[in-house]
Amino acid sequence: MAHQAVYPDSDDSHYHYQAKSPYFQEPQSEVKASYDDLIDEYASPYAVNAHHKTFAVETPTMGAPQHRRGPSTPMKTTFSSKQSDDTFHDQPQPLYPPLPAKDMEKQRWYQWSNIIPDSIACRLYVLTVLIETAIDLTIEGELLVRVNRETQDSQNTKKMSVYLSIFAIAHVFQFYMAAEAVVTRNTLQFIALTLFNALLLLYAVIQIGEIKEVVQNADGTSGGISDIPINVLTVIIPCVIAAAELAFIGLGWKIYHEFGWKVYKFLGADRRIKKLYANYQIYECLIKFDVFFFAGFSVQFLWLVLNSNDWEYYVTIAALPLSIVLLVEGHYAAKHENKWMMATFMSGCVGAMVYFIYKLVKVLMYKDQDQQFKFIWKSLTTFSVIAILLLSVTFVFSYLVTRSFGRGLKDSLKRKNTVSGKNPSHNRVASANPNRMSIE
């Protein structure tokens, strides 16, 4: 053989063979420890931190000098969350890095600006609606007291009480819609409020003749809180509404241009997204006005027409909350782009239209035959016709909004809420330890 095997028991075997046996072990002192072995020898196993899934390393005490910085310890008590332990905290955390005092003041002012608008035109608009609401509610309360004292017929007293109450609720609803339009920057809602205020003006003019027919002594000054005659009070209301209408038109034009630029900054220059957003705004506005006219018609029908022994009385009572729930469902269906919820809402709109058409036909058929419809058929007809028209338009825009699902509008609205500070995910703390940098 060319090569002679070298066995381990020979004296010079350690120096002459090239391939050592796998069973051969060198002395422990002659083997150099690897870097990983040194790390494993002097470092304890990693302990999981309960807050951010980071690791805390304990320092050894084997005669080596201690480090200046102690071991990492949690800053708060351990807790667990079923939803997510590493991305969500129930307890409030300080922002890191901490904001300067100047930036903190800006942040506080921005939070207040969501309630108090920063635009002069928006402030004047809200102030105008507030003044109009306060004056008209005061006069309506005075008229309600005077009508109840001056009217002899209980049926007329009940009718005027319902009408005045609905008129007062309409002013409260208008103030809420105006404040919401400023906060949400819904430019189309300002246009709708201008039309709604015009309807209130028309109703206030009609109310003058109705109160004169019911009240025997409309020129009297007694029986109320103030000494102003009823005729003067009924004239003041349309004058206030007309002045507010002019202010709405002027301020609305200014606000339309201001909000148009802000919406452009949020949504960008994509015309397709802007068109989808316009349909979404109209849809949301229609739903809110549907709620008012649903409630107004139901209250009149319950208090002025139906009796407790009539089966329609209980059907109307059940239909009122169901209709409100249906409209709320339509709002969330469009917001979350849920097609099943939208299909349910559209089916409910068809059912509501059938219900109002039935009520309208009944009112027109019995307006001359039934004493209950003789004095209130005009108001019921007006509310039912407006409700049917609103439901028809709402059904059309619900279809348009459904077609826009998955086309980028939802993401654009999320970016808008993120920029405006409505997304709470940006308030998360970067680390449980303010002195530690981490990449989460």
Question: How are the SSEs placed, and which strands pair?
Answer:
Blueprint: H1 13-16, H2 35-42, E1 47-48, E2 55-56, H3 101-113, H4 120-150, H5 154-184, H6 187-214, H7 230-267, H8 271-304, H9 311-336, H10 339-366, H11 377-403, H12 409-419
Antiparallel strand pairs: 1-2
Helix pairs in contact: 4-5, 4-7, 5-6, 5-8, 6-7, 6-8, 8-9, 8-11, 9-10, 10-11
Please explain how this structure is put together.
One of its GO terms (cellular component) is Golgi apparatus. Keywords: Membrane, Transmembrane, Transmembrane helix. InterPro entries: UPF0658_Golgi (IPR040410). This protein is mostly helical. The chain folds into three domains: about 35-70, no CATH class; about 120-245; about 270-420, no CATH class. The protein is built from twelve helices and two strands, in the order ααββαααααααααα. It has helices spanning about 15, 35-40, 100-115, 120-150, 155-185, 185-215, 230-265, 270-305, 310-335, 340-365, 375-405, 410-420, and strands at about 45-50, 55. The protein has a two-stranded antiparallel sheet with strand order 1-2. Strand 1 and strand 2 (about 55) form a beta hairpin. Helix 4 runs antiparallel to helix 7, helix 6 runs antiparallel to helix 7 and helix 8 (about 270-305) runs antiparallel to helix 11. The longest helix is centred in the middle third of the chain and has 38 residues, at about 230-265. It is flat, with a radius of gyration of 37 Å. The model is unreliable at about 1-20, about 80-95 and about 420-440 (pLDDT under 50).
